[in-house]
Task: structure prediction
Amino acid sequence: MSNLTTTFVDGSGGGTPIDAAWLNAVNAALNPWRSRAALPLTSLTGWTAGTGTWTADANGIHQTDASTSTKRLRYTASRIQLASAVVEVEVRLDSGAGNAGLTLRTGPGDVTQGQRVDLRGDGTNVTAVGFESDAFTAQGTYALDSSIAYGTWIKLRAQIHGSALAVSINDTLLTTAKVDWGNNGPYLGLVCYSAAASWRNLKVWTLVGPTEAL
Result:
């Protein structure tokens, strides 16, 4: 963690370095952060669906339609400031050659807004992390060192600091990037494309308190 460099999601490198001390503080101890209760993933209360077939039970939220289209679910029960924040969730790809993950800083009126970070799979294994900007314009992918089988819960963590974004898989930092967010909305969401997937244990820490309480 002490020698972090910034890498654009297209792999070109360079850009504005992310503050290594900030990342170390996040990973070593979240005590300075305002710890928030986990957002509800055992029911759809508080969530607004755009498209897709969404269900919820004691094991999390599930999207069961693996057809070739984007499915979106947004948490609208409260607004969450994600200027400097950590968003963590466990994601499981269940079927379909596609992707599943998070949308961050999503706008109030259109669930296609915001930054997207997702796990990408071939129908059998998760092989990469993908990045897309506002309106889901592709920004690139980051290949995993080793694939992870479908049906496995994978911890996806996004650490946000201004325009900087750091992504970890199962507590291992994969890449840092300076991204063009395109939108700074107050919501976050779940998203998948051409895949059935599940989410559980969604948690948010933020240095800036919410504009509305959960």
